[in-house]
Each structure stands twice: as structure tokens, then as C-alpha cells.
Amino acid sequence: MRALIVLVGLVATPFLAGVSQQVKTNNGVGHDVAHCAMRAGLHPGTTDFNKCPPPTGGTTGGTTGGTTGGTTGGTTGGTTGDTTGGTTGGTTGGTTGGTTGGTTGDTGGSGGTCANSPPGLGTASIDGQVFVDASPWPGLQGWCVQASGPVTVTAVTDASGNYLFSGLPAGTYTICETVQSGWHETFPTGGPTCATGLGWTETVRAGDGVGFIWFGNLTP
């Protein structure tokens, strides 16, 4: 009998030791931590495993990270896009506007707004010519001439270099040409100072006209 009792004791001792070890490592829920982690890896997304503690931190971490990343990325991208777009638009608009205005002013005169003014309600007129001041003295087409006095009018020279202001009210006028880029004025040699050379001062009476108001020019 004593031998039987000793044999049973020897067999039961390892079993009891294993149970005791499991209780110490599985937090009292049934399966140890390693086993529960393996089950969670085999079944991602499952939140309830028998005899395992429920997983923590996954949903909150994912939601918080996604929301934070999306908000931060959207805000940063929007701000960057607005700044880049504004800077690019401003620079492009300024450069384009400046170049267009400068080029038009050079070729058309008077800040790029030169055109043939319509006849006014007066009865006086002024006419003349813009020409190359060298034989055979051809006219210069497309040059701008301005008359300033009781009214201010502009004219663009025709194919022969001629221009005409008609329907002017009586009074004293200063007549100037706009010298185009690459040219310099040679005639008149005296008179009122204009923006790009010298001009003429003429007085016209109602019903009368003043002619031969000429401007000579040469290229350097």
C-alpha cells in the first residue's frame, strides 16, 4: 500500500506543477498570453476569443491615426495649394500684364491706347505727317500723334504717314508724336517738350485748319 501511494504521488506532481504554471502566466482567463496572441494573429479583426482577454488599443489607435493623418494632410495640402496658386497667379499676371502693356506702348504710343479719335463738334482741324528724315522721305505708318488743348485727341498715321484731327473746337493746341522704339526724332528742332521729343504749339480758329505739322525721325 505504501508503494502505491508513493507511485501516485510521483505521477501527480508534474501535472499539478503544470497547472500551477499556467495559472501564473495566463492572467487567470484560461489561455496564456502567447496562445492568445497566436489566435489573434490567425483571426485579425476578432475581438472576442474564448478564454482570452479582449484586445485593446487597436480600434482607437487606427481611428485616431487615420483621422489625424487625413485632417493634417488635407489642411497642409490645401494651404500649400492656395499659397502656390496665389503666388504663381500673381507672378504670371504681373509679368503678362507688364509685358503686354510695355510692348503695346512701344508700338502704339500713348501707353498702348492710341487710336483715331472721332471728329468732334468743332469746326477747326490740324493735319500733318510723320516721315523718315532721309531721302526719299517716306511716310511712317502706324505712329501715334496727340493734340492737347481745349480737348485731347489722338490719331494713328496712315500708309503715307499722314494724320488728321478734325472737328476741333477753336483754341491753342500742343501737338506731339510718340517716338517708337529704335527711332529718334530729328524734326522739329525746337518747340514744346513732349514725352519722347519736341512738338508744336498751334492756335486754330473756328472754321480754319492748320497743316504741315510734320515730325521727322531716323533710326540710330
Show the helix and strand layout:
Layout: H1 2-25, H2 33-42, H3 58-108, E1 124-132, E2 144-148, E3 152-156, E4 162-168, E5 171-177, E6 184-187, E7 193-194, E8 197-198, E9 200-204, E10 209-218
Parallel strand pairs: 1-10
Antiparallel strand pairs: 1-4, 2-3, 2-5, 5-9, 6-10, 7-8
Task: Give a short overview.
The chain is an alpha+beta fold and 220 residues long.
N-to-C series of helices and strands = HHHEEEEEEEEEE
Fraction in beta strands: 25-35%
Mean pLDDT across all residues, rounded? Answer: 75
Shape: rod-shaped
The radius of gyration is 48 Å
**N-to-C span:** 137 Å
User: Stretches where pLDDT falls below 50 for ≥5 residues?
Assistant: 1-26, 57-62, 89-111
Strand order of the largest sheet: 4-1-10-6
Helical residues, percent:
25-40%
Major β-sheet annotation:
4 strands, mixed
Structural class: alpha+beta
- Count helical runs: 3
Oligomer: single chain
DSSP strand tally:
10
Index terms:
about 220 residues, 10 strands, about 25% strand, about 40% helix, four-stranded mixed sheet, four-stranded antiparallel sheet, 3 helices, single chain, alpha+beta, disordered N terminus
Walk me through what this model shows.
This protein is 39% helix and 25% strand. The protein has three helices and ten strands. The protein has 220 residues and is of the alpha+beta class. A four-stranded mixed sheet has the order 4-1-10-6, with no helix packed on it. Strands 3-2-5-9 form a four-stranded antiparallel sheet, with no helix packed on it. It has helices at 2-25, 33-42, 58-108; strands at residues 124-132, 144-148, 152-156, 162-168, 171-177, 184-187, 193-194, 197-198, 200-204, 209-218.
